[in-house]
Amino acid sequence: MSEHNLAPQIAAYEREIGTLREELLKEIGHLEEKKEELSACLYVKFPALQKRLSALPPTLRTIKTDYASLRSQVRNFSDFYGTAIKEIMAGINEMSEANKDLIEKYRKEVALRRKYHEQLVELKGNIRVLCRVKPVLKEDQHEEGQTVVVTTDPNNESALTVLSKGKAKNFELDKVFHPQATQEEVFQEIEPLITSCIDGYHVCIFAYGQTGSGKTYTMEGTVENPGINQRALKHLFNEIEERKDMWTYTVSVSSVEIYNEVLRDLLSKDGEKLDIKINPDGTGQLHVPGLRVMEVKSFQHIKKVSPRVSSNRITFGTQMNQHSSRSHALLTVTVLGTDLASGAKTTGKLNLVDLAGSERVWKSGAEGERLKEAQNINRSLLALGDVIQALKAHHTHIPFRNSRLTYLLQNSLGKGNKTAMVVQVSSLESNVGETLCSLKFAQRVCKVELGPAARKIETGGHNENKLSVTISSRYHRKFSTGKTGDDISVNLA
Ligand code: ADP
Ligand code: MG
Predict the structure, then answer these.
(1) Is 361 inside any structural domain?
(2) Which atom of ligand 1 is nearest to the CA of 207?
(3) Angstrom distance (rounded) from CA 251 to CA 242
(4) Distances (CA, A) of 374 to 212, 263, 329, 355, 431
(5) Separation of 305 CA from ligand 1 center, angstroms?
(6) Which of 44, 55, 138, 322 has the fewest CB atoms within 10 Å, i.e. is most exposed?
(7) Does the CB atom of residue 328 touch ligand 1 within 6 A?
(8) Which residues are annotated as a binding site for ATP?
């Protein structure tokens, strides 16, 4: 292309450049203006902002510190709380351990007490024959033959001497109460049996003797001076109260009399006749269908029942005592126990028997109906003697069925049960025949035996839990086999 052709084009370019420069300068001017404006604005606002910014940190710092302190407080508190909970839990555990320990100890203690109690009762013999000599009362003084022929030995609690036809006859029983012995002293000998009953044993307590010798006095006593029955029930309810944290008990009573071999309910108004049957529950135990059984909640409650029982007894006058009772009266107390911890159950039975007069028929001057009655009484007392003797001698056959009384008491008289027979005697010469008969009866059922308890304790040489009792001389004969040099020494530390 020639130089000539380029010139206009160059000029056009130059024009265009010129326009662009103008526009650029305008734009620069614009920007300069904006810059001025902005910097003026910055100049005004920045210090305030700076000021606000510089004011922020202290607040932030406090908030930060506060937050940190709060955090540490929370951490500390939860630590503290955790430790406290741990300590409380440990305390609770320790306490319940200690509690468990205490309860366990208490249980062991109770079990041990029971075991020792049983050993003590067995040591004394599961069948004990006691004799109570009646004091000579004013009313007895009117009779003939005032001489006192029965003497007790202050140095030997088990000996008794009867003077008959110029001869002294000696008797030895488990225990002899002198005429001045109190109702409380008599009960003291019986008390361990009542405790056994609460522990689940069957217990029989009999009063035996001729009419007027004090059977009813010993069993029932008087209002001012109650006998075994009331004292036993009082003891029973006291014991139940003491054990209430570990055991609950239900106590019920029933009462029958056996008159002329007929059983009557003393808790029914009209003395309903009853029968003894084998329980249909398959246990082989005997029971009396229709017998009234009353649950009693307290000693006071039971006291209200007793007068009804007494007034319901059939009594006939004989030549020996106008108010004598010709029937056997039986008060039965059933004690059902439940161990609160284990649920284990026990059934104890306490049979309190006021027997009919033991006098021989000819002396009562009985005839006809009265003679039959007297024969029945004598027969049933004989049967009772036979049963106790057979039990003591560990015979395989025990003649329970020979009388209503022994049949009724079969479950309570058998092996593993406990019996006490209180033989009542008069000390006057006019009664010496009956006294001798009663003592012979007592002697018959009180043969010297080697009790199982004696053997059990004899082997306890290495036993740490030795029974701590002192056995008075009256029990020594229990451990004698009768042969010389054969005595068992009982070492009870
Ligand atoms: P039983 O029942 O054997 O026929 P009781 O118990 O009725 O004889 O006694 C006859 C009388 O002798 C009653 O008045 C009784 O109170 C009284 N008696 C019996 N034993 C004693 C005694 N140990 N102390 C005081 N009085 C007694
Ligand atoms: Mg009587």
Answers:
(1) yes
(2) 3
(3) 15
(4) 16, 16, 16, 13, 18
(5) 22
(6) 138
(7) no
(8) 209-216
